[in-house]
Amino acid sequence: MRDVAAAAGVSRTAVSFALNNIPNRNISEATRQRILKVARDLDYAPNTQALNLVTGKTMMVALVVRKTTQQFAGDAFLSEMIEGLMQALEPEGYHLMVHAAHPNASGSTYRDLVRTRKVDGLLISSPMVHDPEIRLLHDEGTPIVLNGATDEPDIPSVDVDNRQGASVAVRHLIALGHRRIGHISNAPFTYTASCHRLEGYRKALADAGILADERLIHHGDFTDESGYAPMLALLDLPEPPTAVFVGSDTVALGALDAIRSRGRRVPDDLSVIGFDNIPVGKYLTPPLTTVHLPAIDLGRHAGAMIVQVLRGDLLPSPTVSLPTRLIVRESTRSLSE
Amino acid sequence: MRDVAAAAGVSRTAVSFALNNIPNRNISEATRQRILKVARDLDYAPNTQALNLVTGKTMMVALVVRKTTQQFAGDAFLSEMIEGLMQALEPEGYHLMVHAAHPNASGSTYRDLVRTRKVDGLLISSPMVHDPEIRLLHDEGTPIVLNGATDEPDIPSVDVDNRQGASVAVRHLIALGHRRIGHISNAPFTYTASCHRLEGYRKALADAGILADERLIHHGDFTDESGYAPMLALLDLPEPPTAVFVGSDTVALGALDAIRSRGRRVPDDLSVIGFDNIPVGKYLTPPLTTVHLPAIDLGRHAGAMIVQVLRGDLLPSPTVSLPTRLIVRESTRSLSE
DNA sequence: CTGAAAGCGCTTACAG
DNA sequence: CTGAAAGCGCTTACAG
Question: Would you say residue A272 lies in a domain?
């Protein structure tokens, strides 16, 4: 910048004004053009770090993924999520950093991200039902938006309506005549999404006057393998279910495998419905009936929201809940046929 | 920091030395401990932006993904790649930024990332065979490592041995008795990976004394849908192939669908082998024979490499090529049986 | 219409 | 063993 000023024969102040196109500060059009030309000729690029220091902003947002290595690598939606996030962030001049915070790690490594001014705000994925750290972060005034709801309605979050999605899935099964319906969750019930999907399952049963049987409820743990043992347990029940609602397509993969391993067929012997609508679901045999999760939209909303928070705009509503959509394919069938 | 210095009754210099634990600069152990305690009590966190300005480093690396929105969102390996990258980067104190550079966008948005000192270096994915921009970037001295090989041996890159992987796949088909073997690539042949996999295909055929038939060669375009039409074209040939090597499992999904739509069966009527070993491959019907791509390892190597480049370390070899592994499942069978 | 000066929060020669 | 001072590259009141 010093060089540009020298070459154009003006002060650094003038260069700053010209480059940033400050409206009030008048600079004659002639010198403005001259400065711009010199800057271009010198291939000048402003130093972001210096700018950050004076503005106090980094224009950077961190996506913190709280998963283990294995869960992280197997996340089918991370790329969609990131894509949506960037669609919202980049036009506003924000950049996206990805930060892994393995859940069993001690202390919140991500809190330091904003304390040390590496990023302006945090997007936190996979929240737990009860998470004092997030509460603390938010109460400290740290700009955060959660990717996934919690039970704290004042903390900004975006998620799909998990209860609704699960209810719709289970109602579909009930409409097909099933009464004995098992559930394998996507993750332990300490995760909000699992918890809400379980609630949706219970509600659909209750609404139909079906008594919930706790032996029919198991939990997965994000991965495909984690669906195998729970499914076997369900199959080995004295009175096995005729249909299963699995809270994640990925977990359903393992469950389907378990069913096959027992020589049972889907949907003939057992109906299976998943959740998420992973891209390969339609290529499975049979194509998997599921509940669509709009991952890119989720990212877009979360991105738009953190921008508002960072600008200090009032949020119309701190929590946004996106609708899901039932995708009926061929892994579910009517009991009566 | 000023507050810490005041509270501890020392200069900011002393605080800086104590906090950074500078060895040569002696500070009495007593005052060191005092300073550390005060810093803790005041919940002091250093301002990274200020540090960056003086050191001239950002400790940040950008992963630039040169794909369209759709290709990006469908990238099955992005999360694995990122996981590997972070495993290498975080212990070294580097952070990872993700930047989308859609291929048809005008100008290199990512060049500015390092010019404006937002990041120290670039990890560039999905390189083309011929890319003057990357050449330019490297010649300017921009620290880059490519994720995927190019034909420029002096530019640091990490990739799997695509030629070798493709050869092994096709040799497997030949060993099963196939002579008329089709190929559908993962992407247009302007991408290095596609190009090299095609070369591997050709080499395996040539080694077996089989004449390549150009009508048997088609190209996909990253997505599952892009495998459909090429497969149909293959099937509609007067003399269709008995086996097909598809350069990507994702593209193979569409190809398998096309085969099904024609009422043909895999592997009975046609053997299919993919590339990448996407996690769901083993859950397909039939489970997909494929070539394993070690995505996390790729990320780890790329991450380790950019760290070396940034440190100015000499690279033992600018290009690293990781081995692939044939995964035989049930989508390929012997012709003679 | 334009420039000199202070300041953002650090590090690091340099002098005591 | 410790501190005063300069400097990293910008922006922005403030004064002319």
Answer: yes
Count: domains in chain A = 3
Tell me the CATH number at B22.
1.10.260.40
Task: Looking at the complex, report in whole angstroms how far the Cα of residue A137 sits from the nearest Cα belonging to chain B.
Answer: 14
In this complex, the answer to whether residue A334 has its CB under 7 A from any atom of chain D, a nucleic strand, is no
Q: How far apart are CA B84 and CA B123, in angstroms?
A: 13
Q: Do A118 and B48 touch (CB under 8 A)?
A: yes
Q: Using CB atoms and an 8 Å cut-off, which of residues 134-153 of chain A contact chain B? A: none
Q: Which nucleotides of D are covered by protein (CB under 7 A)?
A: 1-5, 7-13
Task: Name the closest residue on chain B to residue A100, using Cα atoms.
Answer: B86
CA B53 to chain centre: 31
CA-closest candidate to residue B74, choices A248, A223, A80, A88: A80
Domain extent for B202? 162-293
Question: Which residue in A281, A278, A292 sits closest to A327, CA to CA?
Answer: A292
Instruction: In whole angstroms, give the CA distance from residue B308 to residue A270.
Output: 54
- Give pLDDT tens digits along chain B (337 positions): 777 777 888 888 888 888 887 765 667 778 888 888 888 888 899 999 999 999 999 999 999 998 888 888 778 789 999 999 999 999 999 999 999 888 776 667 888 999 999 999 999 998 888 888 899 999 999 999 999 988 888 999 999 999 999 999 999 999 999 999 999 999 999 999 999 999 999 999 999 999 999 999 999 999 999 999 999 999 999 999 999 999 999 999 999 999 999 999 999 999 999 999 999 999 999 999 999 999 999 999 999 999 999 999 989 899 999 999 999 999 999 997 6
The answer to whether strand D lies under 7 Å from the CB of residue B102 is no
Q: Say if residue B255 is in the same domain as residue B141.
A: no
Encoded tokens for A106: 């001690």
CATH number at residue A84: 3.40.50.2300
Residues near A84 by Cβ (< 8 Å), separated by ≥ 6? A295, A296, A297, A298, A299, A300, A301, A302, A303
Same domain, B151 and B300: yes
Does A335 fall in a domain? Answer: no
Residues 100-139 of A with CB under 8 A from B: 100, 112, 115-118
pTM given for the model: 0.92
Same domain, A188 and A76: no
Residue whose entry in the numeric block shows the structure tokens 């889907």 = A266
- DSSP-derived 3-state class of residue B241: coil
Residue A207, chain B, CB below 8 Å: the answer is no
Same domain, B174 and B288: yes
- Whether residue B275 sits in one domain with residue B308: no
